[in-house]
Amino acid sequence: MSEPPVPPRKRMVKPPSGGSDAGRTPPARLKTAKIRTPSSQAWLERQINDPFAAAARAHGYRSRAAFKLTEIDDRFHFLKPGARVVDLGLAPGGWTQVALERGVKHIVGVDLLPVDPLPPAYILQMDFTDPACGPLLIEALGGPPDVVLSDMAPNTVGHRQTDHLRIVGLIETAADFAVQVLKPGGAFVTKAFQGGETAAVIAVLKHHFAQVRNVKPKSSRSDSSELYFVATGFKGRG
Looking at residues 8-20, what average pLDDT do you find? Predict the structure, then answer.
């Protein structure tokens, strides 16, 4: 009676030698993702590993976007003690936090979303495109602003052309508001996007402001087309 064949031995594979992972910190991974879509999983992991998001949490900022305004103001110096500021699309409040941190005492903001209080800022939950919104903001501010900030972004519907038109429409609405309410010498900062049809907006800003610049803050993600128009030296409505 022949014996059964002996199964082949499994070769043990040793880990490669000569290298070390010392000093490397592998990116964090979320352990549970059963109820998340791949895109939301990727977004959450990016947030966890984002140094600006981590710095925002450490500093007590409500969002990493605070560093975008910090970098812009470090360059153009429009957030001054005593300035009156309007913050359009302020949720969750990072830009208002920076303005208050830099000595601004009179600031009003508006967003469709509810925002936790940031005293002494006056926060209005409302659609900025509602014609009644602008007058309410100026009344609450107690006079014309020195600075109008806009980090607004529209709710997207997934149709590229429609979403693009909404983005440009918000930029135009914010720019028109700034031109109507700013004090002479004032500043306007708005989110925009590379490749957007914003030539008409830029032309309007150049007509009314002494200087108009495109700025891509370091804290704005490199894979994002986001940038900011910074218009300073408001010349008036003429």
Answer: 40
